[in-house]
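User: For documentation purposes, I need each entry recorded in a consistent format: the amino acid sequence on its own, followed directly by the corresponding structure tokens. There are two entries in this batch. Please keep commentary to a minimum and don't merge the entries.

Assistant: Recorded as requested. Entry 1:
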Amino acid sequence: MANRRFQPLGADYTDLSGRYSMSRGPSDTLMDRIAEFRNRQRATTKAVTLAILMIIMDMSGLSGVYAGDQEELDERQEKRGTLSNLNMPGFQSGLASTNQTFDIGESGQHACMVLDDQSLWCWGYNGHYGLGQLNSTDSENPIPVYRDSGWAEQTVAVSLGFYHNCELLTFGTVQCWGQSYPAGAQGPLSSDTASQLQNSPSPVTLDSAAVLVDSGRSHSCAILDNGSVQCWGSNQYGQLGVGYQCVTGNEGVCGVHNNEIQSILYPAYAILPAGRTAVGLNLFHYSTCIILDDGSYVCAGVNFGSASTPFYLNDSEMHIDFADSYTAVDGGDLLYVTSNYDELERTQMRYGGARTPHFYQQNTSYIYAVEGGVRALAGATANFDQSFEQGCILLLNNSLGCGRNHYGPHVRRCVVGVVEVVGHGQLKGSVA
């Protein structure tokens, strides 16, 4: 979850924006303080990350997987020590410098996780073949994704869309499965194979090794090792960022395969500003946003006026560290997409002290904003009226703020849990 700007050695915080002033050089005392801080950070991040995981699962309707009697819960509580063996570089999606090891599908009905042995396990609804099991049978318990005989586990990251999922393998291969042409086409010609359904992971034909993959509702993008971005799938609203929409099938390379006139199935290059490379992705619904190497942020797709060429949302004073849905973070400050969906604004400080998480409450005259110091996002959305309605935010002081869901005035149930790997990756948890 450490997808935030790192403090340089010898730098002192000047404010919550994450900008620093430099001293002449780090003293021994400063170095000791940095080492102590990092040790504390490692110890606390795992526990807080797991709390976020369980809260999100509850909000997404997945927490039923963990129901059990009190005796079983007590037994699980005694095994907290096994947490140190989990592979948790962070659940925060979107940056090429980190691996997303857990994700929940856009529908909220299935989830996948990468274990420390690089195996991939999924559970939940399987109607779109999202569990990668060669069948469409649901599973309440995590089960390993199907692999051919002799397969060596090598998954380092996972990304779930709505109809499909994708994984990133150790040496830069991207594999996808599910429905709506998850792996795209094997070549650029109409005679090249493109499968509407992949019931187990299938390689995507990219021009070079990938360092990051992300998935939207029915499209995916990957950042390649040279910083370029290739995308494939539905392009009805310009979400692939290639400079045109697929409407009639006569535009560009739309409709080449299987007469899918609203899609580009062979990976195409998204248009990036001249001289810039990509370091992060934020795909959601029918939209694509890209974080560039200078901290700028460009977006395309239905949520951005159906723009087919990614355009800048940030001003020159903003440096985007990571993003999720309509929300982005700059040095700890929470940003939101304005009502015109054409720029980012900073949330206003309204209630409480520094770094205090606040919650949106329905049917009241109060509109709460989440204040500065944001460390990670999970399903977060800050709307243009600055109300924080969904998901959870982890702050720099390790406090956790969550917004309401669509079915009540706020998060009606708070879940604190322990997740452990027993044997070969069985996920278990305690719920309170």
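Entry 2:
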Amino acid sequence: MVMVALFVASLVIGVMVRTALLQQRQIVLNRDQVQAFWLAEAGLQLAARQASAPADQPGGAETNILWKWTPAGSETSQPPRKSGEVTIHISGEDDQRPTVVIADFPADSIHRVRARRELSLSPATGSPGTPPQPISALQPENRQP
């Protein structure tokens, strides 16, 4: 009888530990999804500034940008903080410049999360420093490869 009770107790404890580990993994995945989303949003803002550059400056034509993001103080922290990678593609010089932003977080892990944002940028109006106005913003894509 005592052996059966110990066996049942060890099964219950095993299930509880497994559930706690799964919840911890889900929390980390959710945190990484939020970080990838905000990196993609920052990439859209960078793309808008790049697209508003005059045609005689770099960025007036089709542009590809690779931005590697590292949190401040990550060189001295133990363990090192995770960094992200943002790829921005701005298509040619037509009225609506399709822009695709893909953010991967963490960049140096096989378990990374990808957020994809797309929008079309209209040409800048008004002063030269005014960023283009977004025409449409499509859904983010969050997935784990």
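Summary note for entry 2:
The chain is about 35% helix and 25% strand.
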